[in-house]
Amino acid sequence: MSVDIRAAGAVVWRRRSRTLEVLIVHRPTWKDWSLPKGKVKGEETLHECCIREMKEETGHDVVLGVPLGWQHYTVSSGKSKEVRYWAATVADKGHPALAARGKVQPASKKEIDDARWVTVKDAHKMLTHKGDRKMLQRLMDLEEAGVLCTTPVLVTRHARATKRSVYNGPEQTRPLTTTGVVRAKRLVPLLSVYGVDRVVTSPWKRCLDTVAPYAKATGLELETREALTEAAHVKKPKKMAAVLSQVLGKGRATAVCVHRPTLPTVLDVLKGVTPHHLRRQLPGKDPWLKTGEIMVVHVAKKKDKAVVIAFEKIRPAM
């Protein structure tokens, strides 16, 4: 079903003296209290839209957490609208991911005249719309389950590379195509929205060049792991599995750039830390991920063990 208006929003949360608070905004035109949200502009993804709107409406730079779902409704003009929501937290000042974001102009006072941290109980009373209260309840469900605090691991398949059949050099130096280079640059804002502050990659050129634009934008060092190469994976797939398991257990927002032939091992590792009801969301057949596509793995800690709470798949628009 086609949608006329696409938008994104978030339930931005924090803890103060063990009390959970969320950020809500007042819209004078509509005379309501709402979760911050806004419409997609140009070619931006919903993820990029969400980050921009949070900055415009609340003044805060945020990083996205677990997706909370969608609202669907018809606006006064008769057009259909859908809004995707995430849990989100305010980024630390000086976070490297912020260097990869553009400048944002604050919303006018006619659009938003107040942004306020309130307790969840007060938010339930103040939010005008039922759909917003529903998203707030989904956040509380995560809190009650002890999995609201998550860390994203972004499994990234390298962007499109020159075909093996037409490249005469060593396999480890096979480069990205022109399209691949463009898509690698478009990955930068998507890695930024999740606050990626660590990049682990195969040292082969097509993987390095896929995540190099983000490293350049943020000032992060690329951490290369020989175990992530196709050749090493053929010989000792368990070493690659160990690298990924280490990343999942580290508790840092990490992008891991890999090759398509290694993805079955990646998926086996993920299955081991994913509840049965979520496993069906994992890719089921080759190629598992398209070139330049990201599988966002939201990881929580339960009894000091990593457990997957949600998955997302994103491929930047060209």
Automatic annotation (TrEMBL):
Gene Ontology MF, one: bis(5'-nucleosyl)-tetraphosphatase (asymmetrical) activity
CDD domains: HP_PGM_like, NUDIX_Ap6A_hydrolase
Gene Ontology process terms (BP): AMP biosynthetic process; ATP biosynthetic process
Residue intervals of the Nudix hydrolase domain: 3-141
InterPro entries cross-referenced by the UniProt entry: His_Pase_superF_clade-1, His_PPase_superfam, NUDIX_hydrolase-like_dom_sf, NUDIX_hydrolase_CS, NUDIX_hydrolase_dom, Nudix_hydrolase_domain
Superkingdom of source: Bacteria
Keyword field: Hydrolase
Pfam families registered for this protein in UniProt: His_Phos_1 (PF00300), NUDIX (PF00293)
Entries under PANTHER family matching the protein: BIS(5'-NUCLEOSYL)-TETRAPHOSPHATASE [ASYMMETRICAL], DIADENOSINE 5,5-P1,P4-TETRAPHOSPHATE PYROPHOSPHOHYDROLASE MUTT
Protein name: RNA pyrophosphohydrolase
Highest classification ranks of the organism: Bacteria, Bacillati, Actinomycetota, Actinomycetes, Actinomycetales
